């Protein structure tokens, strides 16, 4: 059966509603979506209400305060990234990574090794952030087998954590308050410690609790997996860096593989290029901002100790290999994005964004209906005392010219690092407006 040509925005949106799934959205009663017709700088162009917009100049510009789910750190239509993509497309779009290799992948691995902590020397290029966490879990399990401890098959994770939507990732997400509780009966049963305290909180009491949990399960634990400093989709919770020191000590004491999921926090978002620069894990997962939001790509980096113990397992090899592993287009853009990150001075940009968010959002603390306001690097969070009305809050922000995507009881922003001071002020006004009606 042939389908009619869809050449008007209204037709596109109607077809979308009937046939296309969006993240965490019902097919029978889908939430409204907006048609994006173009993007440039920190702005998206949304189709007019009649749906006839066909170019950025005829659409409605709105600031993307979400960086396309935290990935478009340089904004859109970035000349350096466009050029890298076009140049690589003219050479080779893709080639299998099994038995073959290419310079974009090699150069990207070299760069990642150079900018991450020194012990992390070996790079697995994955399709997405979730895949990199799946690979990290597999690395931890195979590493224990290579060390002669095949009975160690469980992982320690933290309440409030979120690590992705695939099955291994779901198993280490919060099993009670997380998004995947309905699958609890079919997931691998992991071990969970309490959510870590906020900066300045009682780390000692929390640490005692974690040590008790680990001591009770050490004989069956392969590793620890955490989002360092900031728990993202599990609640945008900021916690004390001293907790990471505790986890490193516990991992060393019990022979556990420590995994840092820096898919959201890596590449400058929280004020450090990597949180792991302060406390080094055995495996580091990065993604999201790696290609500046252009293409899907992630990586899992590990130490020589872990890599060699994997090689001593019965398979002798790491048992994973995605079809699009090391995609040349994605690797080339990632290299250009890392170049741009360094050239633009990300530290100054993130500090400036942080100051702008603090100036605009901190005054909301204590207002009616607002439970907490949190600022960390280029992250601003307003926590409500009730579940947010996503549609009303989104509409309120759009009336201010800003795109946000609230969830649970949180209205938050992770803007591109290049967002101007004036646009930051507008984002803050939009978040305040969303909080008032949401």
Automatic annotation (TrEMBL):
Main location: cytoplasm
Modified residues (N6-(pyridoxal phosphate)lysine): 288
Pfam short name (any one): Aminotran_3
The EC number(s) this enzyme carries: 2.6.1.62
Record keywords: Aminotransferase, Biotin biosynthesis, Cytoplasm, Pyridoxal phosphate, S-adenosyl-L-methionine, Transferase
Residues at which substrate binds: 69, 162, 288, 321, 405
Site (Participates in the substrate recognition with KAPA and in a stacking interaction with the adenine ring of SAM): 24
Pathway: Cofactor biosynthesis; biotin biosynthesis; 7,8-diaminononanoate from 8-amino-7-oxononanoate (SAM route): step 1/1
UniProt cross-references to PANTHER family, sorted A to Z: ADENOSYLMETHIONINE-8-AMINO-7-OXONONANOATE AMINOTRANSFERASE
Family designation: Belongs to the class-III pyridoxal-phosphate-dependent aminotransferase family. BioA subfamily.
Function in brief: Catalyzes the transfer of the alpha-amino group from S-adenosyl-L-methionine (SAM) to 7-keto-8-aminopelargonic acid (KAPA) to form 7,8-diaminopelargonic acid (DAPA). It is the only aminotransferase known to utilize SAM as an amino donor.
Name of the featured protein: Adenosylmethionine-8-amino-7-oxononanoate aminotransferase
Originating gene: bioA
């Amino acid at each position: 059966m042939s389908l009619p040509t869809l050449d008007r925005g209204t037709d596109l949106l109607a077809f979308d509603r009937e046939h296309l799934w969006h993240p965490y959205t019902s097919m029978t009663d889908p939430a409204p979506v907006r048609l994006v017709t173009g993007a440039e700088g920190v702005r998206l162009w949304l189709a007019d209400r009649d749906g006839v917009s066909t170019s950025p100049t005829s659409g409605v510009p709105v600031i993307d305060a979400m960086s396309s789910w935290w990935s478009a750190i340089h904004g859109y239509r970035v000349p350096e990234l466009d050029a890298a993509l076009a140049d690589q497309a003219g050479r080779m779009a893709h080639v299998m990574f099994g038995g073959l290799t290419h310079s974009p992948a090699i150069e990207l691995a070299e760069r990642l090794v150079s900018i991450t902590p020194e012990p992390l020397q070996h790079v697995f290029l994955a399709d997405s952030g979730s895949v990199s966490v799946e690979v990290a879990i597999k690395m931890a399990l195979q590493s224990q087998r290579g060390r002669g401890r095949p009975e160690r098959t469980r992982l320690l994770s933290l309440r409030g954590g979120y690590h992705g939507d695939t099955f291994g990732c779901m198993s280490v997400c919060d099993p009670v308050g997380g998004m995947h509780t309905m699958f609890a009966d079919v997931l691998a049963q992991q071990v969970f410690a309490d959510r870590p305290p906020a900066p300045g909180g009682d780390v000692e009491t929390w640490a005692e609790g974690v040590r008790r949990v680990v001591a009770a399960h050490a004989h069956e634990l392969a590793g620890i997996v955490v989002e360092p400093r900031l728990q993202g989709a599990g609640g945008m919770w900021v916690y004390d860096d001293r907790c990471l020191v505790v986890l490193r000590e516990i991992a060393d004491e019990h022979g556990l593989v420590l995994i840092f999921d820096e898919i959201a926090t890596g590449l400058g978002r929280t004020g450090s290029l990597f949180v792991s620069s302060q406390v080094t894990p055995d495996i580091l997962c990065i993604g999201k901002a790696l290609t500046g939001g252009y293409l899907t790509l992630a990586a899992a980096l590990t130490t020589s100790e872990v890599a060699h113990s994997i090689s001593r397992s019965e398979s002798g090899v790491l048992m994973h290999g995605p079809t699009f592993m090391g995609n040349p287009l994605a690797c080339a853009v990632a290299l250009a994005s890392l170049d741009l990150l360094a050239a633009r001075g990300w530290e100054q940009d993130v500090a400036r964004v942080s100051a702008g968010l603090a100036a605009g959002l901190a005054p909301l603390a204590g207002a009616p209906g607002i439970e907490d306001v949190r600022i960390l690097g280029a992250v601003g969070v307003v926590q409500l005392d009730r579940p947010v009305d996503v549609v009303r809050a989104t509409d309120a922000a759009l009336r201010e010219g800003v795109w946000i995507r609230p969830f649970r009881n949180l209205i938050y922003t992770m803007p591109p690092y290049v967002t101007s001071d004036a646009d930051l002020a507008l984002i803050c006004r939009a978040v305040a407006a969303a909080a008032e009606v949401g």
